[in-house]
Amino acid sequence: MKQTKKEFIKELLAKLTLREKIGQMTQLNGRYFCETEAELTGPFEKLGISAKDLAMIGSVLYLSSAEEAIAVQSKHLEDDPNHIPMLIMMDVIHGYRTIFPIPLAMGASFDPDLMEQCSQMAAKEASASGVHVTFTPMVDYVRDARWGRVMETMGEDTLLNSRMGAAQVKGFQGDGYGRPGSLATCVKHFAAYGGAEAGRDYNMVEISERLLREYYLPAYKACLDAGAPMLMPSFNSMNGVPSTANSFLMNQVLRGEWGFDGVVISDYWAIKELISQGVAKDNREAALKAMKCGCDVEMASTYYLNELEKLVRDGVVSEAEIDRSVERILSLKWDCGLFEDPYQGASSEKEVECQLTKENRAIAETAAEKCAVLLKNDGVLPFSKQVKKIALIGPFAESRSIIGNWRANGKDEEAVSVADGVRNLLPGAEIAVVQGCSAELDQFDEGEFPAAIDAAKNADVVILCVGEQQDYSGEGKSRVDLKLPGVQEKLCEAVCAVNPNTAVLLFNGRPLVLTGLHKCAPAILEMWFPGTEGGNAAAKLLFGDANPCGVIPMSFPKSVGQCPIYYNHPSTGRPKKAGDDDVFQPFHSNYIDCGNLPLYPFGYGLSYSSFRYESMELDTHELTKDGQIKVTVKIANQSDRDGEKAVQLYFHDPVASSVRPVQSLLDFKKVLIPAGKTAKVEFTITEPQLRYYDADCSYHSDPGDFDLFVGYADHPELKDSFRLLD
Ligand code: GLC
Q1: Atom 6 of ligand 1 has which residue's CA nearest to it?
Q2: pTM higher than the cut 0.90
Q3: 3-class secondary structure for 641-656?
Q4: What is the overall mean pLDDT for the chain?
Q5: Taking residues 460-464, what's their average pLDDT?
Q6: Is the pLDDT of residue 364 over 70?
Q7: pLDDT (0 to 100) of residue 44
Q8: Probe ligand 1: pick from 62, 64, 90, 91, max atoms within 8 Å of CB?
Q9: pLDDT band at residue 45, thresholds of 50, 70 and 90?
Q10: Mutational pocket test of ligand 1: of 244, 268, 297, the residue with most ligand atoms within 8 Å of the beta carbon
Q11: Is the pLDDT of residue 507 over 60?
Q12: Mutation test of ligand 1: which of 187, 475, 477, 478 has the most ligand atoms closer than 8 Å to its C-beta?
């Protein structure tokens, strides 16, 4: 009779020596298993372990093909005296080989179904190459665009992050990982990594428990509730203690309150970094602190292998604690199907069959279209497809480096540039391409401006392609300024001055300060890093074969000095009076040299359609504790063009026992509204949605009146109110 999982694990665990158990708790860079020298971390001997130790390692990361995965796994199964398959993990963040838009762009879609579909595609591609687990979703709540990893999140709203994160879990895992074509997920970085002081990566986070629980924690919980079996603590210290050794986070909240019994894996060298963070005097103490906070797997360093045996012998760590971690790891391997099939169907043939296919490119292109945000349009867009002469200007005009920084096995050269896309769409048009300037931060050469201006003068329409290089955002890539690098803004000003039929395409991994661009450009389309099919998507959006429907997931500041800036900010005792945001109001909460509001607020995005909110009706204006209010919103598409709309419902609690945000996203739905038609969108309000963490961290709602509106942040289109009864 087939053993149950419990019986199998019990029997296997009983066979393992203590060191073999600790080997299961160690994850090494896959390069050690492919080459002797791992450029990232030098020869494995430097880790103080032997070749025999290598044979007992529990998991690897960064293998990059089915061939590698099969070779490494089969050799390991021979070398490991217990023949335990390794878990193969990778950062499949927004695509594996076919790259779709960066997560911040996916957040702009406000479309969890799209996120699930793209994640499912990525899972199939990665699984074919032998990946079992992805270090995704990353759902770190963010408010400061100086931080480079904002590109990896879905933005400044907890509900949006939660829904999009849960959609990723569903997409990667399907109805249960452990079969070819699915991946187990690992939610990260727990917790509050996005709260790094001054937006500087890896920097400390000081945060009240109230703020942590209300804004930063829910999205991680949503992903675990959606079935993510793994979690990764964050590098940062939180209130003085690095997450990896933070007992409040790891024991009290994660294992205690949330009852999570899945696998916790450290971030890369994070256990080792406890020493440089000054909370561990040596390798032994670093290993002990991580162990005592339930960190089951050490990524990339070998403090567990080199220290835990002694800690067990010294009675400081019990073998039962080791066994608990190893049981979690073996349980995950069982659930991933590795004991049935250590290869999970990976093969070079499968890679050819399911990676970078026409279907996957189509999914990536649709995603790039739906993530784009039309920030400004004085009427020049969409361009006519009858145009004869097109000037493509800017450092991103012909660039294929538009797939973003976390690209797994995606390759720039497999991407479609804007020039490629325009040529594909309008093969008969005459296209002049001029780089115009560099996108590098410290390049100020304007030598190509005359050529750019000349090309613009002689064109029917001009497409300016500017932005940040893709290695200016992502891990370790914080900036102190958010302007377009180099002289790109000056190039835009010069070109827009000579041809009013100009549209600017933006390629960037974070909100930028676009105040100057907004003044000079007749149209601005935010493409983010759109992925492999970015150029085709951009062309279709510019020439009207696609209709922009993305909205801002993270505020675009008017000045970097406003950071951190976010839509759901609390009121103050001296709020600015309504009116021109850029006019200074003495003795009010504002700046003498800049307005308070962002240039582009959360939830904002234009369309080629024209939508009008016709009505918002509540079936009752009184909400009981266990009742609900049904809200019906009617929104008309008054144009001759079908269009999608992110319908957003916000509320405000004007009087509570703690200061509350001036507005909070209560719910959202993305709907397609055919030309000339009116859509009916229904929301439900219940009392739990109105709860918040009070000053003493009690979690409750307050009876009383609530304001309600549809529209986008700071821009109510229709308003109403309701009362929550005691
Ligand atoms: C990195 C990142 C983390 C990633 C891990 C493995 O340092 O912080 O997000 O999953 O290492 O690549």
Answers
A1: 268
A2: yes
A3: CCEEEEEEEEEECCCC
A4: 96
A5: 98
A6: yes
A7: 65
A8: 91
A9: low
A10: 268
A11: yes
A12: 475
Give mean pLDDT, residues 488-514.
98
- The predicted-structure confidence for 305-330, as pLDDT tens digits, reads as follows 999 999 999 999 999 999 999 999 99
Examine residue 29 and state whether it is found in any structural domain, yes or no. Answer: yes
Question: Which ligand 1 atom sits nearest the alpha carbon of residue 186?
Answer: 10
> How many C-beta atoms surround the C-beta of residue 294 within 10 A?
23
CB 279 within 8 A of CB 241: yes
* pLDDT tens digits, 374-428: 999 999 999 999 999 999 999 999 999 999 989 999 999 999 999 999 999 999 9
Q: Which residues of 72-104 are buried (b: 16+ CB within 10 A; e: fewer)?
A: bbeebbeebeeebbbbbbbbbbbbbbbbbbbbb
- Amino acid 1: pLDDT: 76
Burial degree of 612 (CB within 10 A; 0-12, 13-18, 19+): exposed
Q: Which atom of ligand 1 is nearest to the CA of 152?
A: 9
Other CB atoms within a 10 A radius of the CB of residue 425 amount to 17
Q: Which residue, by CA, sits nearest to atom 3 of ligand 1?
A: 267
Q: Which residue's CA is the closest to the ligand 1 atom numbered 12?
A: 91
Annotate 253-278 with b (16+ C-beta within 10 A) or e (fewer): bbbeeeebebbbbbbbbbbbbbeebe
Spatial distance between the Cα atoms of 430 and 553, rounded to a whole number of angstroms: 36
* Amino acid 43: pLDDT: 65
Span of 48-57, 337-346, 438-447, 590-599 with lowest mean pLDDT: 48-57
Pair 146, 482: CB distance under 8 Å? yes
Domain count, the chain: 2
**Residue 719 within any structural domain of the chain:** yes
Binding pocket residue ranges, ligand 1, CB within 6 Å: 61, 91, 135, 188, 267-268, 475
| CATH of residue 617 | 2.60.40.10
Task: Look at residue 134 and tell me if it is in a domain.
Answer: no
Residue 579 has what pLDDT? 87
Give the distance (Å) from ligand 1 centre to CA of residue 270.
10
User: Is 101 inside any structural domain?
Assistant: no
| C-alpha of residue 188 to centroid of ligand 1, in Å | 9
CA 245–ligand 1 middle distance (angstroms): 17
CA of 39 to the centre of ligand 1 (A): 17
Using the mean position of ligand 1's atoms as its centre, give its distance from the Cα of residue 406 in Å: 10
Nearest CA to ligand 1 atom 8: 267
Q: What percent of the chain has pLDDT over 90?
A: 95
* Domain limit, last residue, from 315, 343, 371: 343
Kindly report the CATH number assigned to the domain that includes residue 44: 3.20.20.300
Question: 205 is written with which tokens?
Answer: 């986070």
Give residue 59 CA to ligand 1 midpoint distance, Å. Answer: 15
Ligand 1 atom nearest to CA at 138: 9
Residue range 262-309, pLDDT digits in tens: 999 999 999 999 999 999 999 999 999 999 999 999 999 999 999 999
Query: In the prediction, which pLDDT does 145 show?
Result: 98
Residue of 80, 140, 267, 420 marked active site: 267
**Ligand 1 centroid – CA 36 distance (Å):** 22
Ligand 1, closest atom to CA 62? 12
- Cα 422 from Cα 426, distance rounded (Å): 6
User: Which strands, in side-by-side order, build the sheet including 664-673?
Assistant: 622-623, 715-724, 704-712, 643-652, 664-673
Choice from 29, 62, 135 to test ligand 1 binding pocket (greatest atom count within 8 A of CB): 135
Q: Distance, CA 99 to ligand 1 centroid (Å)?
A: 18
267 is a catalytic site residue: yes
Token representation of residue 459? 């064109």
The residue from 343, 365, 396 where one domain ends is: 343
pLDDT in tens, 443-454: 999 999 999 999
Residues 195, 206: Cα–Cα separation, whole Å: 8
- Amino acid at position 224, single letter: L
Residue 435 pLDDT > 60: yes
Q: State which residues form the domain around 242.
A: 21-90+233-343
Residue minimizing CA distance to atom 10 of ligand 1: 135
